[in-house]
Amino acid sequence: MDHGHDMPGTGGMVAPPPMNNTGMMHRHKMMMMHMTFFWGKSAEILFSSWPGSFEKRPYMYFAALLFVFVLSILVEWLSHCRLVKPGSGPVAAGLVQTLLHALRVGLAYMVMLAVMSFNGGVFLVAVAGQTLGFFFFGSRVFKKTHPPTETSDLPPLSC
To answer: What sections of the protein cross the membrane (predicted)?
Structure first.
């Protein structure tokens, strides 16, 4: 009995190629994704075809690493900054805290997605950025008062 499957005894029927929304047939572009850490300079980080081929544009890989490094530092800065002025109204302070939290979580997810490219260089700059950011904004090295009563407008990121 022929049900249209490409199995022995079915008459060799094969499903047609998929159609796109215009009714035209298209081919699927196969994309290889790394599932373990690798040390190559040609990787896709965050966006499709970004930073692109290292052979064509070698500076773009380093620009992508710098971007992830800066994002990591920003996450730490937002985790330890004081932007709400003392004496602010509770509604205004709450709105500022909520917006800062949304920004911090969004940037932290972007760093996480960049690390999920499994590129060793991206992993190293993400950790280095978080480390340097904590050193400048979270450690006691540059604090004026010891111990701080409240170091941030936001609670620390926790699991």
So the answer is: 30-47, 59-79, 91-112, 118-137
